[in-house]
Amino acid sequence: MKILVTGGAGFIGTNFIRYWLKKYPEPDITVLDKLTYAGRRENLGELPGCIQFIQGDICDKVVVSQAMDGCNIVFHFAAESHVDRSIENAGDFVRTNITGTYTLLEAAKAANIDRFIHISTDEVYGSTFEGSFSEDDPLMPSSPYSATKAGSDLLALSYHMTHGLPVIVTRSSNNYGPYQYPEKMIPLMILNALENKKLPVYGDGKNIRDWLFVEDNCAGIDTVAQKGRCGEIYNLGAQNEYENIEIIRKILNILDKPEDLITYVRDRPGHDRRYSLQTDKVAQLGWKPEVAFDEGLQKTISWYCDHKNWWKPIRG
Fold first, then answer.
1. 145-162 per-residue burial string, b: 16 or more CB within 10 A, e: under 16
2. Where residue 148 sits, what CATH number does that domain have?
3. Catalytic residue flag (residue 222)
4. 179 has catalytic annotation
5. Rounded to an integer, what distance in angstroms lies between the CA atom of residue 200 and that of residue 306?
6. Residue 19 is among the residues annotated as catalytic for this protein
7. Which of 8, 54, 135, 315 is the most buried if burial means most Cβ atoms within 10 Å?
């Protein structure tokens, strides 16, 4: 079985490839990544012979067709994913998340692939003050990022309905773990604390997210690819709901840093208050998260402490 991983040099894609290499004895992997600021070739290290790396844009029809040649399953991770950046410049998000997904879907249709696994986010549902979102709930995205992801979800599912393309969509809660680019909250707070810099907290710090360790997400995506039904959506969450300020205090406590490093800053526009997912559907396939939040956070902090050569050039 040969797989194509788009965005394989990014955070979740990198961890997924490492997961796949450990689980499957004779992997055959093609990685397609544009290597923008958050996609780093160093994330994959010295590639074994079973991996072919192609640097290219998912909007480029020729490159996409070449990368997909002979593949059985497409795992589509490639996306612009930072909310703040989408507020500043939505155009890149429209191009990559929608046009890029369209280009991949067309190539997958032509190649007659076996499965197209489209990786999405809980942010497409918008915010809720109570209860948890199921896969059948309406989409109410709040940011240009989440709106373009919602658009790409619907486009992918339409290719299943219209063309019979074997599409499955996964929507995960907030991921954290090794190799996450330090513009995202957990690595940003870890590195600022290590360098004794201020930790900026949006608004009152009480926005709530559900935190899923990235390796658990990778296992969930694999489970859905092997056992899920085409044309379906599967939520992947961990029921680890914390206020942002709680997470930041945990990080400071683990690193033995003072809380006076916390500084409250102006909230960002359209900031969702709470995300929460129902995961009964994927549980029926046999998946559940294995890593408790405190364990995963400690693993993540230890990784950044031990890999200064990875993040120091970025911070510089």
1. bbbbbbbbbebbbebbee
2. 3.40.50.720
3. no
4. no
5. 24
6. no
7. 8
